[in-house]
């Protein structure tokens, strides 16, 4: 997984269309004046969040994030969005987007299906702070835009959940066409299962076959050149949500054989179990610092069978229960 976000070179034009000065946005974000002049623009998570906070601060439009994410001009779509549109249906589109996102940014798209619903959630793997509201808006609008363009229908979610306090409810509900809930535990966009399985009128097997191999090749190259321990750890973090992936699952995600992956880990003096433990420990710290998750919910997200197993593991790592660790850390920050 990439440790940097790739910023589209088309963003300045989009900002100007929305009456925002790219130069003013860069000044507010404390980014170089030549930022948008780079051939390829890569930023850290902190810099990406600063850029979107600047957009939020300078725009009087409460839907500015949605307007950036709701792109109508297909020539402005990146390869991941185009590949998503050429798939068979909305489900396939989201699964491919989740897989290929790791090429361009430290971002995880979590997908969860029930008999009636399909939930999409964006997780920022290297975030040290809460994501800007307009960034979340942009991501949700992007998902809905893919669904609408792909199905050729005015697709509306079942609901949208925001972790932030209430603001601009009427405008958001008008755009998404569904109820919007605030002060939720997570930022989620939830669709009806029947909608997510709709076939795409944009499905094109030939064009998909032309694009996908290149993305898969880039994925293999990126993974082959990465530090084995860090690569496996980041991949575990991306798929570790209510289940405990084994090395076969991770090898499949990375695009390598189990034997090759074991050999690379051994060359780094690591075992799969050690990397799994490190990934869980780092994610536990992240959840305890930056979320209001209950401890049993944290245990579930880390793939533990029950909360007691998580408590024992955390005590082994830190010498204290997770609840006490969270309290001490937050008191120290305060």
Automatic annotation (TrEMBL):
Superkingdom assignment: Bacteria
PROSITE patterns: HTH_ARAC_FAMILY_2
Residue span, HTH araC/xylS-type domain: 230-328
Keywords: DNA-binding, Transcription, Transcription regulation
Stored InterPro entries: AraC-type_N, Homeodomain-like_sf, HTH_AraC
GO cellular component labels: cytosol
MF (Gene Ontology): DNA-binding transcription factor activity; transcription cis-regulatory region binding
Gene3D superfamilies in alphabetical order: Homeodomain-like (1.10.10.60)
UniProt-recorded name of the protein: AraC family transcriptional regulator ligand-binding domain-containing protein
């Amino acid at each position: 997984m990439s440790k940097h976000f790739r910023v589209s070179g088309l963003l300045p034009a989009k900002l100007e269309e929305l009456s925002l000065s790219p130069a003013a946005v860069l000044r507010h974000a404390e980014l170089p004046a030549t930022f948008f002049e780079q051939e390829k623009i890569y930023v850290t998570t902190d810099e990406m969040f600063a850029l979107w906070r600047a957009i939020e601060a300078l725009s009087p439009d409460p839907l500015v994030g949605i307007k950036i994410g709701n792109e109508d001009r297909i020539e402005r779509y990146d390869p991941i969005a185009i590949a998503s549109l050429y798939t068979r249906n909305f489900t396939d589109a989201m699964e491919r987007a989740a897989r290929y996102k790791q090429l361009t940014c430290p971002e995880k798209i979590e997908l969860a299906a029930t008999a009636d619903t399909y939930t999409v959630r964006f997780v920022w793997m290297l975030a040290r702070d809460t994501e800007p509201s307009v960034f979340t808006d942009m991501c949700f609008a992007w998902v809905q835009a893919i669904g609408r363009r792909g199905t050729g229908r005015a697709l509306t979610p079942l609901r949208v959940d925001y972790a932030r306090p209430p603001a601009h409810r009427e405008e958001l509900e008008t755009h998404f066409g569904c109820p919007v809930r605030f002060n939720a535990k997570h930022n989620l966009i939830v669709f009806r299962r029947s909608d997510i399985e709709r076939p795409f009128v944009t499905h094109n097997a030939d064009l998909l076959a032309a694009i996908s191999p290149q993305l898969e090749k880039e994925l293999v190259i990126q993974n082959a050149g990465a530090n084995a321990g860090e690569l496996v750890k980041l991949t575990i973090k991306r798929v570790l949500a209510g289940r405990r992936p084994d090395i076969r699952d991770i090898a499949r995600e990375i695009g390598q054989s189990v034997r090759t992956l074991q050999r690379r880990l051994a060359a780094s003096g690591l075992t799969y179990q050690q990397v799994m433990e490190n990934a869980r420990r780092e994610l536990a710290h992240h959840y305890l610092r930056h979320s209001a998750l209950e401890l049993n919910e944290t245990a579930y997200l880390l793939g533990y069978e029950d909360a007691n197993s998580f408590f024992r593991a955390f005590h082994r790592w830190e010498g204290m229960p997770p609840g006490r660790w969270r309290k001490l850390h937050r008191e120290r920050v305060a």
